[in-house]
Amino acid sequence: FSLLMKVIEIKRSLSLLSGLILAATTWVVSLELISDRPLPNAIFSQSIIERKMEAAEKPGKGSKTLVVGGSNVAFGIDTVRMSRTIGEEFVNFGCIAGIGPEIILSALRPSLSEGDRILFCWEYGLYRFKRRDQNITYLNLLFGPQREIYENYPFLDQVVLSLRLPFGHLRDSLMTHLNPYADPMIYKCSWDFDAGGNVRSNAGVVTSEEELLKKSLDALCTELIVSSEARKTIMDFLGYCRAMNVEVLASWPNLFAHPSYLKNQIPRENIQRIREFWEDLSVPVIGKAEDSMLGSEFFHDTYYHLNTKGVKKRTDLLIEELKPWYAVPGAEG
Question: CB–CB of 98/45 below 8 Å?
């Protein structure tokens, strides 16, 4: 009798295992089949990446400087103004922070040439990037237009990431692309970019000071430990740049000057850790983080997005900080 029970138990276990394998295989095959049918937010994010790549690849004379980050760069730096003042070509390569550093830097690599410069204005959350986090923007890109990056990940990462994806992904993909009444391309980003990659649809103040004061930025107000994934991604990219004779500089993201940032010790310590992170990698750090924190009147719709008045103020500050690095008349350095 005991032998019979053991046989039954083994059969049950094998049936359960077979079912799990079948379910996993079906899920992986399904994701592969819809990889060319991205979800709306992946279409939105990918359209931003493509606009930035176009701006970076435009023909120019001599070397260029690419200002790199998430939407704080897109909505915060006027590279046309920088080019005109400094006398060298600048390109705004600000995407959105939610897509993660691996995707941003992968998109940037093809645009680099010998003699170029890169200026990182990384959002604070990007230093905490973890590949296996359930970031839906990042996941939808990996299982859509950025699938090549996913396919180069270690096998275990691929398995974990595929399990992180909600089951509704398959349904939403099919609904988006089988809808006879709407072209999926309507989900492309509607921000108004100029030829240099700068957002020009940020006039006026949409978010009030009261809204900005409601919540400080967790990424700055909780103890920062630069993740191993973020560190490796940046170190690999620096190796690529140095092999191509591309100089790398670092600066700070523009951010609403919430009172808690300057009053509390943790944000000050995090800022110092970030400075030390770059300096340990022999990357010069330009300016002070506090100088990039501005009042509410300079912001458009979030604590990272400046309005046109804020863009001018932030850009002019950055120009002054960068003059020693360029052959600008009257600059010291």
Answer: yes
Compute mean pLDDT per 10 residues along the chain, 333 residues long, and list them: 70 74 66 79 96 84 91 96 94 96 96 95 96 90 94 92 84 85 90 94 89 91 94 97 97 95 92 97 96 95 94 96 80 46
CA angle, corner 184, sides to 182 and 188, nearest 5? 120
CB 137 within 8 A of CB 99: yes
DSSP for 11-54, written as a single string = HHHHHHHHHHHHHHHHHHHHHHHTTTS--HHHHHHHHHHHHHHH
What is the C-alpha radius of gyration for the chain, rounded to an integer number of angstroms?
23
Strand ranges (E), the chain? 64-69, 89-94, 117-120, 247-250, 255-256, 293-294
Please give the DSSP secondary-structure letter assigned to residue 135. -
In angstroms, rounded to a whole number, what is the distance separating the alpha carbons of residues 64 and 217?
Answer: 32
Q: Residue holding tokens 């990056």? A: 149
Given this model, what pLDDT does residue 206 score? 87
Rounded to whole angstroms, what are the CA distances from 143 to 30, 136, 241? 11, 10, 28
Q: How many residues does the chain have?
A: 333
Q: Cβ-count burial of 301 within 10 angstroms (0-12 exposed, 13-18 middle, 19+ buried)?
A: middle
DSSP string, 134-202: --HHHHHHHTTTTHHHHHTS-HHHHHHHHHHS-THHHHHHHHHHH-TTS-GGGGS----B-TTS-B---
Strand partners, 61: none
Residue 154: helix, strand or coil by DSSP? coil
CA neighbor of 133 nearest in space, from 55, 248, 229, 64: 229
Nearest to residue 236, comparing CAs of 63, 62, 108? 108
One-letter amino acid of 152 = N
- Among 323, 294, 322, 298, smallest CA distance to 309 is for 298
**How far, rounded to the nearest angstrom, does the alpha carbon of residue 217 sit from its chain's CA centroid?**
16
pLDDT of residue 31: 72
Interatomic CA distance for residues 128 and 136, integer angstroms: 16
Please compute, for residue 131, the number of CA atoms within 13 A of its CA located in the half-sphere on the CB side.
22
